[in-house]
């Protein structure tokens, strides 16, 4: 637990002005923890939210079965959808196309589900390893013109690091269950 406490103290020190190398070091620290994968993934989402700021929301949508809705596995910051369908902007398009998506103004998508909760911009990155899609990392901004190229590059890099570290025996359905039981235990 000492490592976990140190990680949270290090995470609390992060901000938008933090050097990228320090962000990378904090993510490495999280990935190296000897804790369940769901806990480490939650830590990475929290780190990303801390760096991007309070006007963002960070979510990971997992694939439970091909072409079934992507389900929320973990989140940090402002709220997002609990699930999204394949091909539905923006996370669903990233999953279907297996390519990163950046929406400078999500309200241009008539079927975007987050517009009603004030989302303006979104970056969605598929988490792929050895051509296997584990899910989609999504960052939402609740102010116009908040996200920029540096933010998108950070989200791409974090998505790639999650994919590279993904345990080969971990299915996202188990993460959904772990996330639900964690929320039931935590106030």
TrEMBL record:
Residues 40-165 form the GAF domain. It holds the Pfam family GAF. SUPFAM superfamilies: GAF domain-like. It comes from the Bacteria. This is GAF domain-containing protein. It comes from Sulfobacillus acidophilus.
